[in-house]
Structure formats: structure tokens, C-alpha cells
Design a protein that fits this description.
162 residues, OB fold (Dihydrolipoamide Acetyltransferase, E2P), nine-stranded mixed β-sheet, mainly beta, 9 strands
Length: 162
């Protein structure tokens, strides 16, 4: 399997490439009043309004820095009602990939209720990389926000709808 590696501070994380729709440079976001701090806002992706979560704020409490390597990772997020949505994940240093097998990942030994999106870990020559489980994003309180305001589902002409 192929994984996109990104960094938050000195820590490395990864996402399954098979779930990534596209990786885009940073843009200016439309802010959402009263949304949690880790919701960067909304942007227009090819005619679809996409919410963006700043993974640096979500995981480490600090906003992503505006680096040349900071990217919006557009992922196929399947909600609990099995509807496909595009979700943007803002991440720093999203520049490399790794190839590893599912069995190479090991449990971290602890699961934090507030961070269920953090999964198993894998090791390479540079150290540990923790997997971000897209299916556990957005966090529970954002899922509640989603149910109240509804994220825009993928459009009819998009290949992701059944």
C-alpha cells in the first residue's frame, strides 16, 4: 500500500493514498463562524464547496504554517450514512510517500477517545509514522456539526457516488 507522509512539528503521520482525490496548494478559506478552531474554513473545489480541517491544530493545537510544502489533501470521506463527501485536510510538508504492507503497522498501545482518528504506527529509517484514519475524521463534534449543517456531498457527475 502507498501512503502520503506529512509532518506536524517534529512528528510524522500518513494517509492512505487510495483515499486521496487530489493534493492542492493552500488557498484563502471562507471562515465558518463559531466552528472549532481546527476547521480552517471552506473553499471552492471545481464547483463543490469543501470544508477544510487543519490537522496541525487538530493534533497539536498549533495552526499549519504557510510553507511551500503545506497542502490541502482532498480525501474521499464516507459519512456514517455511507454518503461520499470531499473533505480537505490541511497538512505541512506533505511531500513524500512510503510503501508498506498493512501488517507492517503496529498498534500504538493506547487509544485516546478524543483522537480516535490516530491509528497504528509504522517504522522506517527516519523513525515512527502514525497513520491517520480518515474514516474517524472529522472528530465527533464536527460530525455533529455536519449533521446540523450538512457538508456538501459529491455532485451527481462525480465518480464517487454509487
Amino acid at each position: 500500500m502507498l501512503f502520503l507522509v506529512f509532518e506536524i512539528g517534529d512528528e510524522r503521520y500518513c494517509l492512505e493514498v487510495s483515499r486521496i482525490i487530489e493534493i492542492t496548494p493552500m488557498v484563502i478559506f471562507k471562515k465558518i463562524p463559531h466552528a472549532p478552531a481546527y476547521v480552517s474554513g471552506l473553499f471552492n473545489y471545481r464547483g463543490t464547496i469543501v470544508p477544510v480541517i487543519d490537522l496541525s491544530i487538530l493534533i497539536a493545537g498549533k495552526p499549519s504554517r504557510p510553507l511551500f510544502s503545506t497542502r490541502i489533501i482532498l480525501v474521499d470521506y464516507v459519512s456514517e450514512d455511507k454518503v461520499h463527501h470531499i473533505l480537505g485536510l490541511l497538512a505541512e510538508r506533505a511531500t513524500e510517500t512510503i510503501s508498506c504492507r498493512e501488517e507492517d503497522f503496529q498498534p500504538p498501545g493506547i487509544e485516546v477517545d478524543e483522537a480516535q482518528y490516530l491509528g497504528d504506527v509504522v517504522f522506517d529509517e527516519s523513525g515512527m509514522i502514525q497513520r491517520v484514519r480518515i474514516e474517524k475524521l472529522p472528530p465527533e463534534n464536527i460530525r455533529d456539526y455536519q449533521q446540523e449543517y450538512e457538508f456538501v456531498a459529491l455532485k451527481e457527475n462525480n465518480d464517487f457516488l454509487p
